[in-house]
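User: Before I run my own analysis I want an independent prediction to cross-check against. Here's the chain; please return only the structure tokens and, at the end, one sentence I can use as a sanity check.
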Amino acid sequence: MLKSALLSAVEAHRERVIRHRRHLHLHPEPSFGEAETGAYVAAQLKDMGVTFSTGWCRERGAAGVIAEVRGAEPGTRRMALRADMDALPIQEVDRPHASQVPGMMHACGHDAHTACLLGAVAALQATREHWTGTVHCVFQPGEETLPGGASILVKEGALYADAPSSGPGSANGPLVDGIVGQHVYPQLDAGVVGFRSGAYMAAADELRIRIVGRGGHAALPHRTADPVVAAAHVITALQTVVSRSCDPTQPSVLTIGMVRGGHARNVIPDEVVLDGTLRTYDETTAADLREAIHRVASSTAAAFGTRAEVDLQIGYPPVVNAPELTAACRKKAIELLGADNVVDLPLRMTGEDFSFYQREVDGCFYRLGTGGDGAGCRSGLHTADFDIDERALSTGTAMMAWLAAAGK
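Assistant: Structure tokens:
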């Protein structure tokens, strides 16, 4: 009865969910700047007549929204669902439905996540006499950048029982029993979902190395301490950090993704700045690699008469899916979609601040297939031509509602 009722409600709201996604895609906002997105979510929740509170993530813009849907016997079980709302500083390719904000794009599918959760709220509200418990629906700012909106919402009490009605900073009562999040995945077809129990996504640290030298005329390098040459050798030397300072059985990645320095071809600059990321799963390994980064960068820079200033910010913890909850969600996904549409996922070195919720309560973070034949529907996340097959929105809406309402 519940399954058919939910699927009927999802179908009834299908076009509305598509409109939500398209509206959000046209109007992306940066991490911790999602004021209009949060206002849009709040307006939709108000129209649905559900309890919600705004102002979450107060220290970074207060765009977060948390809603509550109560089924029959609301005190028996409390589950949380999470969607992130921020976009990325990427210029989208020219197409009819492209972002209207120059240099900003929903290239990671957060517009789809938010639309699906709004659809799930509507479906849960329409079927509340068919399921028991209470569902918290967390619309989170700032997933794409440190400190991660999830870490702030956790501090503000987002996972506590009365959070949706009491607002940030004053929530109390018991914690929710668990939290579920989904993320688009263009490598899977629309209509397919994927799960992995235990360790799934890596911890993500942010790295900045400032190579300080002494600039001068490019034709007189002997009178300088060239930070460009030193930076090149530091980048090369850092490639040995993982290969020679890490247990080979521990997955880890160190990448320098940005190099900035200089302003003219005939001038040796005073400094060069390197930005990168360190990805690990094991805290001991992470500590060893952080120390190695400092050592290798400092000693290599010194060999060229320059100085390395290393700033390494410890970022998101690894995403570790609770085995019991994940097994239950996988079983429910099969009940909803059929075994052929539920797959096992490989380990990933990407990071996610959903991990902050998992430090507090059991969590399951799974993948929603969004691949299709349309332009960009197989493109990778964080690329300018990324898009989704919108048929996936119905799957994502149904999954979120079903996992929250169906019980163990």
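Sanity check: The mean pLDDT is 97.
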